[in-house]
Amino acid sequence: YLHTMMLLSTHAGPWQQRCHFQGPLKVNGSGKALNKEELEAVKVELEKIKEQFQYKEPARAFMDDPETKWRFGGPPDYSLTNLQYLKGRSKIHPEGSLELIVENLVKTWEMERSHKLDSNEHKSVDVENFKISANGGKVFDNKEANEVGNYNVLLDACPANLYDSKNTTWEQSHEAFHHAFAAFPWEVLDVYSGPPKVAFTWRHWGYFTGTYAENQGKGELVEMFGFGTAIVNDKLQLQTVEIYYNAEDFMNVLRGDMKVEETNANWKSTGGCPFAAATSK
């Protein structure tokens, strides 16, 4: 879960320790992060649409332990990511559904992987048995995955001329991507089997308002679709995760070598956008 937070100084105030992504909300070429006023405006809009449409924010667990060693000094604030998720998702899964349970589990895993320094504190995974790979690449255990970061894990099989995961640190990987998008939400599309081996399709999306490798986005919607399997234990902790998606197209779009219209030929956001449909009435 390629994730959606603003990477700021470890000495930043609590309001700043909210997310890694720091691309602008609108295309302005600055790559600036949200300031306090912009974040407050996001929070106001988020509460407004929750009340108006009875929407609920994603439930990320295990954020309240006072003993947690947070990477950026405190728990993250997902207000912007949640707002863009509620406005841009293609499906609204019923409360208690397997789809929503899987979606929140993956979001919790992403939060822990991106924000909790000590991999032994990651409660969404079976610490001793966790394994993850993407597109047939290297299989990482819990400690290794935490050391290199989600981007390097999920792009491990990507050709080195597009993304050199072997020679990119955790910090470098997050710095490279987090100027591109203001947020990059994730959703489950469909779940095809229940525990212990869960098979599901998913979608990642965001507006390319910032920059990647000196390529300035034009505000275009960048979507990523994929398939995954996750073996979970009786505590619903992740044990073995395999992710599949077209990493090459994603990287080529960010580098400016491919147009978004040329990607995802065999995918589409099924069901349209519920928020757009609700606001058009």
Question: Can you offer a commentary on this structure?
Answer:
Helix 1 crosses helix 2. The chain is of the alpha+beta class. The N terminus is likely disordered. Helices cover 29% and strands 18% of the residues. Strand 1 and strand 2 form a beta hairpin. The radius of gyration is 18 Å and the shape is globular. The longest helix is centred in the N-terminal third of the chain and has 18 residues. A 6-stranded mixed sheet has the order 2-1-8-7-4-3.
Beta-strand proportion: 15-25%
H-E string? HHHEEHHHEEEEEEHH
Rg over C-alpha atoms, rounded to the nearest angstrom:
18 Å
Main β-sheet description: 6 strands, mixed
Helix content: 25-40%
Parts with pLDDT < 50 across at least 5 consecutive residues: 1-18
Number of strands: 8
Distance between the termini: 33 Å
Number of helices: 8
Strand order of the largest sheet: 2-1-8-7-4-3
